[in-house]
Amino acid sequence: MAASTAPPNLEDVPSLALFSELLRRMKCELTKSKRSIILIGPPGSGKSTQASIIKDKSYCSCHLAVDDMLRASVAAKTPLGVKAKEAMDMGEIVSDDLVVGIIEEAMKKPSCRKRFILDGFPRTVVQAQKLDEMLKKQCTGIYKVLNFAIDDAILEERIAGRWIHPSGGRWIHPSSGRTYHSKFAPPKTPGVDDITGGPLIQCKDDNTTAVLKSRLEVIDYYAKKKGLVANIHAEKSPKEVTAEVVDTLFNPFIA
């Protein structure tokens, strides 16, 4: 039997939590700006960490992590998720149109109607163009693209210690995808996932020459053709990076 997805009884929700959520939604409704952003950078540059901070500091922003969205769509067996799973079962790459469709689907949620933080997409200029086409139809667009630039030596240290829980495959299992770092965020037991007890594997290096070239082309597309790129010095400490990100985005976000 499928797990129940019924919302919690409001009588059981603490009053402070209800008032906080009500206040957040009221401020959200009063916010006219639809300034969505894209985060670009290699694995280990701190994009996801900063996305969570931006989300907390900006009313009405949802974090759209494409990898997580694909897993969730497949697990929930949405129409697009079923198509994505069919492609993966045949050993094919999920098409750009499907991924853009999943992003468009997520944008319909109340939490994403105002603006979103897109993490992990686009990775090619073609994907960027398809994303632009979809956003144009939705009468919205991208306000800023944050490029998390980082020195190769620092990136190598961060990536070398990264581990991932791939339970059930990269896209399929809803609880897979948790990441750890042997130095910065170690699991409770070395080599073991905290939640399932399953084994962890070393993360695949996503910084090949081809991937780097593609990433630079995307940055160039948004910089030269759109004028939207802001470079973030991702080699700094997380707190320093947060200060730089907030300085770049926070005031415009609440305007």
TrEMBL record:
Q: Where is the Adenylate kinase active site lid domain?
A: 170-205
InterPro entries according to UniProt = Adenyl_kin_sub, Adenylat/UMP-CMP_kin, Adenylat_kinase_CS, Adenylate_kinase_lid-dom, P-loop_NTPase
Provide the alphabetized UniProt keywords.
Kinase, Nucleotide-binding, Transferase
SUPFAM superfamilies xrefs: P-loop containing nucleoside triphosphate hydrolases
Transmembrane segments annotated in the record for this chain? none
Asked if the record carries the keyword Transferase, the reply is yes
NCBIfam families the UniProt entry points to? adk (TIGR01351)
Q: Does the keyword Transferase apply?
A: yes
Its Enzyme Commission number?
Answer: 2.7.4.3
Name of the protein in its database record: adenylate kinase
Catalytic activity line of the entry: AMP + ATP = 2 ADP
- Pfam families with a match to the protein in the record: ADK, ADK_lid
